[in-house]
Amino acid sequence: MNSSFFRKKSIDKIVSDQIEIEKLEGGSMVRNLGVRDLTFLGVAAIIGASIFSAIGQASANGGPAVSLLFVFTAVACMFTAFCYARFAATVPISGSAYTYAYTSLGEIVAWILGWNLLLEYAISNVAVAISWSKYFVDLMEGLGYHIPDYLTMDFLSAKRAYADAQVALSQGQLFESLSVNVREGYTAYATAPVLFGWHFVANIPALLITAAITYLVYIGIRETKNMNNILVILKLLVIMIVVGVGAFYVQVDNWSPFAPNGISGVLKSVAAVCFAYIGFDSISTTAEECTNPQRDIPKAMMWALIICTVLYVLVTLVLTGIVPSASLAGIEDPLAYMFTQVGLHGVAGVVAASAVIALTSALLVYQLGQPRIWMTMSRDGLLPKAFSNIHPKYRTPSFSTIMTGVLVGIPALFANLEEVINLSSIGTLFAFVLVCGGVLILDLDPENQKKSKFKIPYINAKYWVGVSFVIGIYLYLPNSDSWSNYWTAHWVGDARVDHFLLSAFFLIWLVLAYFSYKVNLSLIPVLGLLVNLYLMTQMGATNWERFLYWCIAGFVIYFSYSYRKSKLHV
């Protein structure tokens, strides 16, 4: 029975099943996406909440050096993109990383990956909806329309702000001296209607935009594509204005020191920076709506990553060049704030208005990807059949799309932005790790390599991984004192879990060095696996705890339902 948990779907079986599905009346979707459309979907997803919101706190933590973290993370994503492209060119099905894991790692791994993709897409969209709401409310304020504070934020933030404000006021501080976020939260909690002893504080704009986007995705891929292309063009124009105009106000002195809080400050922003890039895998979820998925998806992934990395680096440098990085802490709209600091209130208004458009496109793509993964899991029997229903008129996964709207819209009412970004990032990196590992396993069979129209450039990892392991250990633990302190920290102090995670990473690195030497593994997937694993170690104990609870819940569902209902179950 244990081996049946790791039962796999062969590539030939997946492709033949897809052919049969497309032959059935009402079973197929509309193939309408080319390279440009796919690239724009990737740009829409990647250039979202991070560049308009999270980039501020990331810059406050790490200073201008965060720009290098964007590059480092982009390189990790590029390694991963090669692996995604390798799978997408071999298995052109909408299941994304879930399908890829099914062919290489087995059903139980594919299930838990699909379960975490649910987390990635749903939580990511919650984060984008919250950011959208903030900019929309600011835009309405600028136009003279005030929305009550208790209808524009989450309950937890408002309650915390109320408590903090009460402490500060009891100590004699003036209300006007409190930060903007604390004042707004206090007002929201204090003025909210009380229902059954509960202060009603909810983010209504986040719910409404989720409902609107869900409707657009529901009625068809052509409409979604056209809207997304328009929004992305507007988004890119705004970012070019931000960089072009902002460059004239950069003060080079603000870039010194380049990393004011050291490497620890830079790494503190790992979650936010990883969150910036999670969207590129959404391209692969549209494989069944591409005119030529095996050729176009790999190209679109690479183009989207290159374009977005350049933009993130430029925006970070301009932002930290105009505003000292320490001043960006707690700023939810850093790009608009940047221009108000230099007196360009008109440009700040344009940025705030454009952020609404930009975040709408990100929301659109995430809301597009999740239902297609559920649809594929349902076809395999791991979810109820309703999730794979295709609407007879709109040719979209109708029930899955509605459920996605519900699972994003309701949490968006009450969720906290920082918490959901952290939780989403660790789920994304987990998916990246399994995709890179899946390529390594899949390519052990030469026959599988022949079935792909996209080849990852082969560099023999035989010696590179082992040599890099020795160098990495030496750089991290250069002397006996550092070794002693490192081992002691496993049992003493607040960072015990972090040290165990790092030790596990070094152990996996050593195992990969052994297999690289023994079977001549390909270097690019190995690097993708290692870099993503390292980024996961930087997520902190709290995020790991929540991630493990989520995985346990997934295993409960798998053993109670999916294992027995799987189409591979005998």
TrEMBL record:
<dbReference type="Pfam" id="PF13906">
    <property type="entry name" value="AA_permease_C"/>
</dbReference>
<keyword id="KW-0472">Membrane</keyword>
<dbReference type="GO" id="GO:0016020">
    <property type="term" value="C:membrane"/>
</dbReference>
<feature type="transmembrane region" description="Helical">
    <location>
        <begin position="301"/>
        <end position="323"/>
    </location>
</feature>
<feature type="transmembrane region" description="Helical">
    <location>
        <begin position="399"/>
        <end position="417"/>
    </location>
</feature>
<keyword id="KW-0813">Transport</keyword>
<keyword id="KW-0812">Transmembrane</keyword>
<protein>
    <submittedName>
        <fullName>Cationic amino acid transporter 9, chloroplastic</fullName>
    </submittedName>
</protein>
<feature type="domain" description="Cationic amino acid transporter C-terminal">
    <location>
        <begin position="523"/>
        <end position="566"/>
    </location>
</feature>
<feature type="transmembrane region" description="Helical">
    <location>
        <begin position="196"/>
        <end position="218"/>
    </location>
</feature>
<feature type="transmembrane region" description="Helical">
    <location>
        <begin position="547"/>
        <end position="563"/>
    </location>
</feature>
<feature type="transmembrane region" description="Helical">
    <location>
        <begin position="343"/>
        <end position="369"/>
    </location>
</feature>
<feature type="transmembrane region" description="Helical">
    <location>
        <begin position="230"/>
        <end position="250"/>
    </location>
</feature>
<feature type="transmembrane region" description="Helical">
    <location>
        <begin position="497"/>
        <end position="515"/>
    </location>
</feature>
<dbReference type="GO" id="GO:0015171">
    <property type="term" value="F:amino acid transmembrane transporter activity"/>
</dbReference>
<feature type="transmembrane region" description="Helical">
    <location>
        <begin position="38"/>
        <end position="59"/>
    </location>
</feature>
<feature type="transmembrane region" description="Helical">
    <location>
        <begin position="65"/>
        <end position="85"/>
    </location>
</feature>
<feature type="transmembrane region" description="Helical">
    <location>
        <begin position="262"/>
        <end position="280"/>
    </location>
</feature>
<dbReference type="InterPro" id="IPR002293">
    <property type="entry name" value="AA/rel_permease1"/>
</dbReference>
<feature type="transmembrane region" description="Helical">
    <location>
        <begin position="423"/>
        <end position="444"/>
    </location>
</feature>
<feature type="transmembrane region" description="Helical">
    <location>
        <begin position="522"/>
        <end position="541"/>
    </location>
</feature>
<keyword id="KW-1133">Transmembrane helix</keyword>
<feature type="transmembrane region" description="Helical">
    <location>
        <begin position="456"/>
        <end position="477"/>
    </location>
</feature>
<dbReference type="InterPro" id="IPR029485">
    <property type="entry name" value="CAT_C"/>
</dbReference>
<dbReference type="Pfam" id="PF13520">
    <property type="entry name" value="AA_permease_2"/>
</dbReference>
